[in-house]
Structures
1.
Amino acid sequence: MILLENLHKSFRGKAGTVHAVKGVGFEARDGEITGLLGPNGAGKTTTLRMLYTLMAPEQGRIEVDGIDVARDPAAVRRRLGVLPDARGIYKRLTARENIAYFGRLHGLDEATIRARTEAMAKTLAMDDFLDRRTEGFSQGQRTKTAIARALVHDPRNVILDEPTNGLDVMTTRGLRGFLRELRDEGRCVVFSSHIMQEVAALCDRIVVIAHGEVRAIGTPDELRAMTGLPDLEDVFVRLAGLEGDAA
Ligand SMILES: Nc1ncnc2c1ncn2[C@@H]1O[C@H](COP(=O)(O)OP(=O)(O)OP(=O)(O)O)[C@@H](O)[C@H]1O
């Protein structure tokens, strides 16, 4: 269970200040997949980075399973599995070694690491590259390795930044099935995307974000009803206020 309240974050540079996140708040429940949907630059990655303790908000509050992120970030990290936007896998290690390394950082014993690695390699269809060094991996192979690594400690809450970016149809379908399994096990799953169809295919609830603000929250049907539009892409364009933007 994840709760975000009134988050703010800005970045100061030579060209001025960018208000990346302006009052974002939403709840992501256990046993549900929550999609953070927004166009490029909407503030999705910044919001997720604050959630997974990589950066502190200037204002606002985050709770994971009732634990305040500002008060006990280490306890929150143990409860989170994170696929960051920069996948950041170690290229000198094999996929299996990347996963095991994170398992050791989480204090898991070798037998548990082996068992978890085998289970995830099977679910994510990693068997043919599990023992190869990750240097030269395709984007899909890197993403799968990073997902398996993120979940090695069996976290209750799973956060994925644009998980299907660059994946082919079959890999995307496999990943969707995997995320549904995590949801059906009662976990809290949050992922970001800029593609309405992607989010609609998978999410129990969608949080539409644009220009650093939440524009709407609801199921795909609720969002359709809000706008009176049948086509989900039109719904997204309307809710995100993109109508004036170039096609
Ligand atoms: N470290 C940073 N320094 C300066 N500006 C930043 C930084 N991180 C994000 N921004 C700016 O904040 C805004 C929101 O960026 P963010 O990466 O959160 O968007 P996003 O919704 O994830 O976009 P995308 O779909 O393109 O990944 C953008 O204008 C971006 O340029």
Note: Residues 89-154 form one domain.
2.
Amino acid sequence: MPDTPTGVMLSVQNLSVDYAVKGGTTRAVSDVSFDVPRGGTLAIVGESGCGKSTIAKAIMRLLEPAEGRILLDGTDIAHLSERRLRPLRHSFQMVFQDPYGSLDPHLTARDIVAEPLKKKGMRSAAERATEAARLIDRVGLPSTALERRPNEFSGGQRQRIGIARALASKPELLICDEATSALDVSVQAQVLALLRELQQDEGLTYLVISHNLGVVQEISDSVVVMRRGAVVEQGETADVLTAPTEDYTRRLRRAALDPSTMSGLKPRHLVSSLALGKAS
Ligand SMILES: Nc1ncnc2c1ncn2[C@@H]1O[C@H](COP(=O)(O)OP(=O)(O)OP(=O)(O)O)[C@@H](O)[C@H]1O
């Protein structure tokens, strides 16, 4: 389509998002632009309240932007009606921070993963069960997990179920909103390793929302640093994190290196070495 650069899966152009507040609106995100190449990973990082989740919600079209364009594989979805959006919905999926809150506690893992298959039009219950079993295996869980309910899993295992559910729609773009934030550092590393493996195998494109520079360094090719709803700095992750040009990024980096903040910026090899274990 017209002005999406070739090979770009997601192009966010001059995005602004408002929230309705008493007596008017407040601008939470202002004039944000970035491109995510197909098969690549872009991270959005910044302190609490800087607008990261608002951007994710706008791309998921849980919110309608005030201004700007959101080109998904060339189609501007910023203002599409729900009816016109519906056929595209499967292609962009989200993995949430709180895997417990986002999984229906009454359903088994099989039913949780099978639900989007039904929505997608897979009519046969037997086919859905087979595909759910394949996906549960794909995310590194044993087949005994299929019959269990969310409260019978650890946080890392629940996050794997959330990932399997997202994969069931066969998405092209996965938005991970603080997807590993609630997990211990070693479990976090395992989930990041799984996400990387899935990306290599399935050619997925990732938008990763995180306040944790360690996660950003571990998983992303490029990064957008945000503050108070606006972009402060953006570029290749290695460049931005090793030689930030902005004071704000330098402060984020210092905070991440300070053990008392627990943010955990770690050399890549160290996080990778933690990633060798299996599903926790
Ligand atoms: N429903 C809402 N109504 C009004 N203002 C909101 C609403 N949701 C978020 N905001 C405001 O928009 C700004 C951006 O919030 P957002 O949740 O996107 O930040 P964030 O960077 O994701 O923060 P965190 O890391 O804490 O989740 C904040 O100032 C927040 O207070």
Note: The pocket of adenosine-5'-triphosphate is lined by residues 19, 21, 26, 28, 46, 48-54, 211 (CB under 6 Å).
